[in-house]
Amino acid sequence: MTRMKKNKKPGRVGGAGARLVAVASAVAMFLAVAVGGSAIAATPTNSASPSEITKTAVPKTVATNDGVSLGVPQHTKIVNAPDKDGKYTVSLNVTGAVDSSTSTTSKPLDIVLVLDESGSMENSISYSDRTTKQQALVTAVDSFLDMTAKANEQLPANAEKHQVSLVKFASDKSDQIGNDTNWRGYNYSQIVSGFTTDFNGLRNTVGQLKPSGATRADYGLQKAQDVLRNKRADAKQVVLFFTDGVPTSQRDFDNQVASDAITAAREMKQAGTDIYSVGVVDGADPGNTTDKSVNSFLNAVSSNYPNATLTKDNWNRWNWNLGQGGNQGYYQSASSAEELKSVFDKIQQQITTTVLYQGVRIEDALSKDNWVTFTGANNAPEFTYSKTVNGKTTDYTPDNKATVDGNGKIVWYPEGQNGQLEAGTTYTVNFTVKTTQKAYDAAAANHKDDSAATGNNNFYTNDNDTAKVFYKTVTSVNGQPTVSDENNTPYNKPLITLPTSTIIVTKTWADGNEQHGSDAVTVHLKQDGKNYGDAVTLNAADEWRHDFTVPAGPDGHQYTVTEQSVDGYDSSVSVSVSTAPSSADNGVITLKGLDEQKGAAAITNTASSVMLPAADLKVTKQVKGHAAANDFGFTLACETTNDQNAGSCKNVSGLDSNGQLRATVSKDVLAKSNDSAEASFGTTNQNLKFKVPSGSANEVVYTFKITENGADNAPAGWQYDTAEHIVTVTVAKNADGKWAATVSGNNPKFVNRYVAVAALPLTGGTTGRAWIVAAGVLLALAGGAGYVAWRRRMTI
């Protein structure tokens, strides 16, 4: 059978040294993308959401001369919401990693080698190097597989291994796995081997490949798609596409073959696969994207241009569209056996250079402000530990337990001072803390009552000066370790949000709030006997209300509310709380509890008054000419005048509904002429209250009028005193600066006189005596008439 091996010509492209560097860079990039990814610590669960879960950014990396680097370990601090007893679970974790490139955390590689096995592979690689392309390829692949096996040996025991699949392409496509030819002896384009870590067996298989056939690049990349249907979900997929010529179905560049190959490559790239194209072909130039031939093709297939297409229009014209992208090093070329081997060696150099974390140490410290304490006996710490691998968390007891020094600093070496973290394993230490009264006090102090102000009631659980993860990296090149200096990076600072409490202060004027629209009062809140915050002003604009933000907490505080003295008014405060365990009694609000508490203080302003015993207001009665035949009654009546500083009777309490008081002098104490006696306008426990002046007035004068009852209807022989005596009560401050009531005109004397009948005057018309005589005559006549009538009845 005739081999199709003369469809391509060997040739050199540029200097070998320049291409070696370029190819090496491409390979380095290949692995850099292939090993990307990160491990995320499992988040502890709680009925309430964690207060904050934050991942620390990577501020720096540790790099080797081969481009391998390992960022700071993935580390997170988590604080869960408190339980019913106010205890918070704190978790600190760190995740181990191994790096074979420039990514933070290692991923295993699923590598598909797509190799050109067309007939031209039997040609010499160049005029100066008579090694055939097939021989050079076998040597390069052998080295690649050897170094991949060594790389797997250096991975941690629990790490997934790199695996390789082999695809050949030439002529017809076969769905069988193997190394077969068609009836004409040309190579099938087929999967030679699925993914395997048996690199010795794969090396033997590569040695048995024999070039023959066309260059059906489309079939090769389509078979790579078939292989990747069995990819690992947690692995990075990479295709290494090698060819020594343009895509053909016979001899010349075949646009349809190229189009189908580019389509298959685009679908893999869109699924996250990185594709590197390596060309050992005359005219290869990765910088050439416009030749519409081999260079356009190998750029379009590679990840240099993720969305490249080659399509045919209605006029059967082929249109190249590379789309967005550029020369990122995914297309490389080689023109000698040495260069080709260097490409694969550089790939493996990246793989076999590993970086691990060593001597990792977690440090944390309780807040320096004593906002939290441990929850064990005598405030001792209690630690638990877990490991998370592939999303599964297992509790365990480490050989190296966390310690706490006298200052509350926590130190933990997950794998000991010189141990290495297992790749992909998240180590977690957990402990519980409870917030102190100082934390509640600080939360309330940071809170701002002004809605336009900034501030909150959050606080940090750790001090970032001490909460850090310390680590070293150990870099192994071909099994030779090098340990770095110690590095560190801070933990995130989760926040705990503590509830604040409220005391609502309201103001009521007993004489009506509407009368005090222009007034204002100053109120002070005291905490445990000391002023808490600034005084506040209550006024009508704020509806006579202010809400104080205060702490409750496990120990709690006592609060009192006082009003700055308002001239002319007395204030009283009644207090209450909404729920236990807080309480209110005798003007004191005690707020205590882990949840939000609410208290209330209601201030009532009542007009100030002075008291005057009603019994102090007196009247004196004297009789002349005869002993008293009846009791004498007197009335004390309040009168509102228009005098300056006159007081209103409505501001006097203790009077009856008519604004009066009454007094009585008994006749028994006026047994003879000229006797006199006092009477009081009230009993011993009866008081009058007088409102004190308000505003700028210094005094107020209340006026009363005392009159004798029945003075205009005196009994026979008596002449009552009809005088109206005025008594005033002046309310003003005394020498001590206190309001006092002073009485003027008190205890007026009323004199009633009795005049005998014989002493009544006879002249001057009908006098009292005349009326008496007339009355006697009439009485006699009436008596005679009565006797006559009686005698007449007796004789009938």
UniProtKB/TrEMBL annotation:
Transmembrane domains' residue ranges: 770-790
Limits of the VWFA domain: 110-347
CDD domains the UniProt entry points to: CollagenBindB, vWFA
UniProt keyword Magnesium present: no
Keyword Oxidoreductase: no
Endpoints of the signal sequence: 1-41
PROSITE patterns reported for this sequence: VWFA
Key words of the record: Membrane, Signal, Transmembrane, Transmembrane helix
Name of this protein: VWA domain-containing protein
Taxonomic lineage of the native organism: Bacteria, Bacillati, Actinomycetota, Actinomycetes, Bifidobacteriales
